[in-house]
């Protein structure tokens, strides 16, 4: 009975969410926050699927994404054109060209790019239809600060929990979460879960499906890494790779981090190091192997920072940048406490000897 008409929530491509639009006129308050050349990559992707519904035992093909990115190709008024590249776990690649009017919701760019500088209570000019039989209007629930692509950003979010209803029967629950960078309007995170269960005669049917992706790289803002508690130095990076495991080693006078991206692509990472943190002669390593300057990377100095532009074939690599001079290690509270204890003991022993000498 239910299996005949159940609407399966298919895979949701990041920038090609199917929409049904209401008639809307362009509003002056809706503005575009992206520029030509703006780019964002989404490397934190996960999905789960389990179902015994006849004909839907296997997950939709599009759920097995390993990477997706988007680049702005053109901005004309409130119209935005983007190229989206999606790479699947089996190695296949799909490229789509999409456009949309962020002021009216027309086009197929979906909710990948929305108007900039919206706030709580503002309606996004588009109706979402993949998740329900009736178009869903999205309204910004709130604005918070969250970390995306290595930086804290002010973001707008929509959080929805609703029942899955078919012919007056509640079969389960779906939860949706969307998060956009407030300044640019670019989507930073999307997740959904869809859980249904129903019984026909004596057989219980179920479908549990969830998916999540987050922005991990962009050229719209730098990733910022604080070197050490107590230091005033920040290392900033622009990269088309996901950056992780950042570390500063005072003893080795070295910063290190990992870069990750889709295989068979060319990666880059532009690293800006304060010259009060590391200086002197530099060496750069990838996976423990010495890189050659002007071949694998370039080094420049702008008066306040050393800038390293490093190129590599993408997968996962460990990068080390080592100087001959660096900021001295600041003692930890533990070592400072130990020094204080030893000093106190030394003073006590000295006083005891002094008193003993005076008595004699």
Task: Characterize this entry briefly.
By secondary structure, the protein is mainly β. 8% of the residues lie in helices and 52% in strands.
Walkthrough of the structure:
A hairpin with a 4-residue loop joins β16 and β17. 8% of the residues lie in helices and 52% in strands. It has a 6-stranded antiparallel β-sheet with strand order 2-12-11-10-9-8, with no helix packed on it. A 5-stranded antiparallel β-sheet has the order 5-4-3-1-13, with no helix packed on it. A 5-stranded antiparallel β-sheet has the order 14-15-18-22-21, with no helix packed on it. The chain has one helix at residues 333-359; strands spanning 39-42, 44-51, 65-76, 79-88, 93-101, 123-128, 136-139, 142-148, 151-166, 169-181, 187-200, 203-214, 217-218, 223-226, 234-239, 242-249, 254-260, 266-274, 278-286, 289-290, 297-301, 305-313, 316-326.
Topology at a glance:
Elements: E1 39-42, E2 44-51, E3 65-76, E4 79-88, E5 93-101, E6 123-128, E7 136-139, E8 142-148, E9 151-166, E10 169-181, E11 187-200, E12 203-214, E13 217-218, E14 223-226, E15 234-239, E16 242-249, E17 254-260, E18 266-274, E19 278-286, E20 289-290, E21 297-301, E22 305-313, E23 316-326, H1 333-359
Antiparallel strand pairs: 1-3, 1-13, 2-12, 3-4, 4-5, 6-7, 8-9, 9-10, 10-11, 11-12, 14-15, 15-18, 16-17, 17-23, 18-22, 19-20, 19-23, 21-22
Radius of gyration: 27 Å
Q: What low-confidence regions span 5 or more consecutive residues with pLDDT below 50? A: 1-28, 330-336
Largest sheet: 6 strands, antiparallel
Total count of strands: 23
Quickly count the domains: 3
H/I helix tally: 1
- The percent of residues in helical segments reads under 10%
Mean of all residue-level pLDDT scores: 85
């Amino acid at each position: 009975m239910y299996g005949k008409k159940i609407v399966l929530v298919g895979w949701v491509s990041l920038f090609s969410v199917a929409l049904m639009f209401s008639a809307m006129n362009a509003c002056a308050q809706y503005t575009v926050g992206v520029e030509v050349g703006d780019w964002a990559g989404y490397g934190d992707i996960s999905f789960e699927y389990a179902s015994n519904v006849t004909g839907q035992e296997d997950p939709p093909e599009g759920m097995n994404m390993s990477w997706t990115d988007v680049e702005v190709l053109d901005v004309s008024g409130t119209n935005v054109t983007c190229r989206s590249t999606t790479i699947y776990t089996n190695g296949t690649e799909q490229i789509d060209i999409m456009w949309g009017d962020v002021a009216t919701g027309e086009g197929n760019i979906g909710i990948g790019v929305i108007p900039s500088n919206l706030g709580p209570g503002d309606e996004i000019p588009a109706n979402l239809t993949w998740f329900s039989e009736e178009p869903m209007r999205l309204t910004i629930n709130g604005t918070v600060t969250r970390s995306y692509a290595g930086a804290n950003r002010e973001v707008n979010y929509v959080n929805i929990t609703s029942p899955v209803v078919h012919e007056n029967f509640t079969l389960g629950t779906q939860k949706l979460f969307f998060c956009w960078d407030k300044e640019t309007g670019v989507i930073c995170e999307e997740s959904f879960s869809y859980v249904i269960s129903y019984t026909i005669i004596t057989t219980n049917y179920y479908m549990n499906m969830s998916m999540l992706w987050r922005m991990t790289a962009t050229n719209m803002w730098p990733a910022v890494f604080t070197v050490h508690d107590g230091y005033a130095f920040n290392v900033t990076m622009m990269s088309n790779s996901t950056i992780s495991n950042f570390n500063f080693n005072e003893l080795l006078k070295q910063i290190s981090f990992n870069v990750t991206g889709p295989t068979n692509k060319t990666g880059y990472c532009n690293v800006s190091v304060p010259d009060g943190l590391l200086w002197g002669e530099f060496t750069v390593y990838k996976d423990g192997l010495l890189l050659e300057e002007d071949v694998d990377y370039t080094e420049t100095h702008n008066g306040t920072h050393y800038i390293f532009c490093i190129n590599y074939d993408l997968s996962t690599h460990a990068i080390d940048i080592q100087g001959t001079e660096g900021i001295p290690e600041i003692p930890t509270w533990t070592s400072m406490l130990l020094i204080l204890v030893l000093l106190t003991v030394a003073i006590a022993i000295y006083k005891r000897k002094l008193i003993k000498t005076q008595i004699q």
